[in-house]
Amino acid sequence: MIELLGKLPDQLIGVTLAAGLWFGFHYLVLADRAMERQAAAELVPACEADVARMQNRSDAVLAPLESLRQLPFGGQTLAMVQQQFRLSGIERRAICECSARRSRQAVRFDYAIHTASLRLIETASVADLRGGTISVLRSQVCGALPWIKG
Predict the structure, then answer these.
(1) Which percentage of the chain shows pLDDT scores above 90?
(2) Cα 27 from Cα 78, distance rounded (Å)
(3) Is the Cβ–Cβ distance between 26 and 109 less than 8 Å?
(4) pLDDT per residue over 117-149, tens digit each?
(5) 49: closest CA among 134, 125, 128, 126?
(6) What DSSP string runs through 42-96?
(7) pLDDT in tens, 45-68
(8) What is the C-alpha separation between 67 and 101, in angstroms, rounded?
(9) From CA 23, how far away is CA 31, in angstroms rounded?
(10) Is the separation of the CB atoms in 107 and 125 below 8 Å?
(11) How do the domains of the chain map onto residue ranges?
């Protein structure tokens, strides 16, 4: 690396070092902060809405089981099954935060380019960060969602 700096014209050494420091600062510090802010403002709420939508679909699937209430101990059995398919708001948020964190790990370099260019360059992976969060959610790495077959 030092050899390459020696081969550069004297006018470009300062510019090259400044660009390296600029990008390094964005990679080490600012990219993480910007992605955390984006996750809190956009990714986690969108993920929670998707999980709630999935839960509503699972409720529609469980609706025919309402006839179990007529059987002895059927009400308790139905309640236990429904309990397995219900996530509290805290559980939804925890799973979505984990999914957002894992999807951000894969695009840290691209996000550093995005922030270092003053958000002029937006790579496809940065643009699809929400899709990455949902795919991590569906892969069930962060927690089991009983209504998703994965």
Answers:
(1) 15
(2) 51
(3) no
(4) 988 888 888 888 888 888 888 888 887 676 565
(5) 134
(6) IIHHHHHHHHHHHHHHHHHHHGGGGGGGGSTTHHHHHHHHHHHT---HHHHHHHH
(7) 988 888 888 777 766 666 666 666
(8) 42
(9) 10
(10) yes
(11) 32-57+88-138
